[in-house]
């Protein structure tokens, strides 16, 4: 297939683009490099340096599908500058979807998020849990889920929203290169890498087994496999000639780890001491986010393969073998 990958110069988009190339697809990356890196675009992919709002200049009927990763995704920034999130994530995606309709490209896989659920009252979280985001980032992603549900039926789009939980790990030369880096695992790995003396633990008074927040960490390689399956499924949805379809799937493992357990995993895997500093809770952090991945397991046959130590080991290998890519 010929695929447009928006955000393919970013962390997750570059991993998925590389996998799609290996599977034999033709990949064109569209990225404005606002948080991505030109050298992260996998070899063999085409590259267009532009925003998603300009996709209309690029998309034509030769494309079979779009995988849409491009977005702003910092919760704190979204609270400080909500307009940026509505313009970039929502208005930008609206333009992209309109460009798809005009070009008759009917298959879309979209990066949604667990942030759509806000502070869920039950875990593991199933897809029918109430969507109630608690920050503009989550609102912007949920708005796109709604946009896709409507355009799927009105325009015959076969769309999937994959609600990722905490994505981590690395594949080959593709790993996390955010600046600033807010994510837990790369921040902990900064300690054994010698970039910082200790890691901050945000919140030690949560109602969890050791007082720190619980998250469901998913290997980016497992996530990439889920995208291949979702992409295939949009083909079946399109070929049955329905009036479009939109399906939401959680992407997580079903297992949660506390911040202290993740720190322990880094100690185990790297063999280095990792001092911690206890800090206040980070604003807007829910205590526990753990996915039920039953729906995607049953319907698409996706089952994650990698555990936390493997995630940390691959992220550590990336950190130590690609020091030139560390931006912090
Ligand atoms: N990392 C996670 O744990 C996580 C969890 C849930 C959802 N997500 C979603 O996954 C996607 C990828 O996240 P990531 O961690 O790889 O982020 P990232 O910042 O590394 O990648 C995003 C890419 O999109 C590009 N981009 C942003 N706005 C653009 C625009 N208007 N036009 C063109 N390109 C644009 C950036 O330059 C960057 O290359 C995002 O949609 C994010 O919301 C990530
Ligand atoms: O230096 C750090 C960084 C993080 N944390 C904590 O670690 C946990 C995980 O934080 P982080 O890695 O920043 O991920 P989340 O805030 O859970 O958000 C990620 O996971 C969400 C879904 O679960 C997605 O919606 C977001 O896009 C994605 O960034 C949270 O309790 C943080 O407070 C620390 O204690 N110290």
UniProtKB/TrEMBL annotation:
Residues 4-239 form the NAD-dependent epimerase/dehydratase domain. Keywords: Carbohydrate metabolism, Isomerase, NAD. Pathway: Carbohydrate metabolism; galactose metabolism. Gene3D superfamilies: NAD(P)-binding Rossmann-like Domain (3.40.50.720), UDP-galactose 4-epimerase, domain 1 (3.90.25.10). This is UDP-glucose 4-epimerase. InterPro entries: Epimerase_deHydtase, NAD(P)-bd_dom_sf, UDP_G4E. Its EC number is 5.1.3.2.
């Amino acid at each position: 297939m010929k695929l447009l990958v928006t955000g393919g110069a970013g962390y997750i988009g570059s991993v998925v683009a590389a996998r799609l190339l290996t599977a034999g697809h033709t990949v064109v990356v569209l990225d404005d490099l606002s948080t991505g890196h030109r050298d992260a675009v996998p070899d063999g992919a085409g590259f267009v340096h532009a925003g998603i709002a300009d996709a209309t200049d690029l998309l034509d009927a030769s494309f079979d599908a779009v995988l849409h990763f491009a977005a702003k995704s910092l919760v704190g920034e979204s609270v400080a500058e909500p307009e940026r999130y509505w313009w970039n994530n929502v208005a930008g995606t609206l333009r992209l979807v309109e460009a798809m309709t005009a070009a008759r490209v009917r298959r879309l896989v979209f990066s949604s998020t667990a942030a759509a659920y806000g502070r869920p009252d039950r875990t593991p979280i199933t897809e029918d849990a109430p969507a109630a985001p608690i920050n503009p980032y989550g609102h912007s992603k949920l708005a796109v889920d709604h946009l896709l549900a409507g355009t799927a039926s009105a325009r015959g789009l076969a769309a999937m929203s994959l609600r990722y939980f905490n994505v981590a790990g690395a594949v080959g030369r593709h790993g996390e290169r955010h600046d600033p880096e807010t994510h837990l695992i790369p921040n902990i790995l900064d300690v054994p890498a010698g970039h910082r003396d200790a890691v901050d633990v945000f919140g030690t008074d949560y109602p969890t087994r050791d007082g720190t927040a619980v998250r469901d960490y998913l290997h980016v390689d497992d996530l990439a496999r889920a995208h291949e399956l979702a992409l295939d499924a949009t083909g079946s949805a399109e070929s049955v000639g329905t009036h479009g379809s939109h399906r939401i799937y959680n992407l997580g493992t079903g297992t949660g780890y506390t911040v202290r357990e993740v720190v322990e995993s880094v100690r185990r895997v790297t063999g280095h001491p990792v001092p911690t500093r206890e800090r206040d809770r980070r604003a807007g952090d829910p205590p526990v986010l753990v996915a039920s991945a039953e729906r995607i397991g049953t319907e698409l046959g996706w089952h994650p393969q990698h555990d936390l130590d493997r995630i940390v080991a691959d992220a550590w290998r990336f950190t130590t073998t690609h020091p030139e890519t560390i931006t912090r």
